[in-house]
Each structure stands twice: as structure tokens, then as C-alpha cells.
Automatic annotation (TrEMBL):
Part of the full-length chain shown: 1 to 164 of 438
Domain spans labelled EngA-type G: 3-164
Organism per entry: Reichenbachiella agarivorans
Protein's name in the database: GTPase Der
Positions that bind GTP 1: 9-16, 56-60, 119-122
Subunit organization: Associates with the 50S ribosomal subunit.
Family recorded in the similarity comment: Belongs to the TRAFAC class TrmE-Era-EngA-EngB-Septin-like GTPase superfamily. EngA (Der) GTPase family.
Functional note: GTPase that plays an essential role in the late steps of ribosome biogenesis.
Gene: der
Amino acid sequence: MSNILAITGRPNVGKSTLFNRLVEFKKAIMDNESGVTRDRHYGFGQWTGKYFTVIDTGGYVMGSDDIFEEQIREQVKMALDEATVILFMVDCKDGMTDMDKDFANILRELKKPVYVVANKADNPDLEMQSSEFYALGLESEVFSISSASGSGTGELLDQVVTHF
Ligand code: GDP
Ligand code: MG
């Protein structure tokens, strides 16, 4: 496999909603490791004739008290190992959180393309607010999207597939 897009970010930002929009076939892989049930979802998508695998990260079902830190570590490790391109998803409605900043600090070190995706930009006001995520200090432009409606996803994918 060569063209792999990983969707990362803290819980509830909309990773799975985007995943479901992007993929046509899916496969859940469950594994059990040191008391943590983890499910990774792999799917296959296509845009402008380019085919790619999408990974929905962060599918923890249960885990330790330190679940947030554990999620960051696992997601970044997987993205490092497997991804060609990484989407770092944040949430316009919630705005910037400490966990977003923690994620950004680690992703900034990666030698792979990372795109900042400000999800839930459901209306022009929220779209405007997405510019606050430039403060995360990643090289990427901030792509405002609504995974629920699909708006903005075309512009994002146009950029993503340049790496495939
Ligand atoms: P994940 O935990 O990052 O995988 O997030 P989910 O995809 O499960 O979404 C978390 C919640 O956000 C769900 O209630 C979704 O319906 C909602 N959601 C996802 N995308 C959007 C969006 O573009 N706009 C709005 N308003 N809600 C969304
Ligand atoms: Mg999810």
C-alpha cells in the first residue's frame, strides 16, 4: 500500500464522520493490547482518479485513565508508521483546546505532510473562526470543512491527492 491518508485528532472533532464520507469500502480491525481495546478503520477512497487508503484513528473503546495522552501517542505512532499524508482535525465549534496544542506539538516534528482541517465550519461565522487554528503553528493552511455536509472537502482533497 502506498497512498495512505490518516485522520488524526482528539475525540469528537468529527474524524469518523469524514472517514465515512471519504470511503467506499471499510474494514474494521480490532485488536486487544494491554487492556485497551482498539479499533482501526481502514477504508478505500478515490478523488479525481487517484485511489487511496484512509485510516480512521482514535477508535478507542475503553482504556486507562490517561486515555487522552495514550490516544495522542498511538495516533501519532500510527501516522508516522503508515501514513503518506496526515489530516489533523480540530473543531471550530469548540475552538482550540489544550489537547489540540499537545497534538500539534508532536505533529510538527513529523517529516510528512500534515494538513490542518477545521471541521464543523457549518456556517460563515464558524468558517471565520477557523483562522484561530493558525496559532497551532503548523505549516499547513487551515482547511475549513463541514464533514456533515461535505462542504470544503473538495478543496482539501485536491491538495491531499497531489501527494499520491
Ligand atoms: P470522532 O470522535 O473524531 O470520530 O468524531 P465523530 O465523527 O464521531 O463526530 C463527533 C460528533 O460531531 C458527532 O455527533 C457528529 O455528528 C458531529 N459532527 C461531525 N462532523 C460535523 C460537522 O461538520 N458539523 C457538525 N455540526 N457536527 C459534526
Ligand atoms: Mg471516531
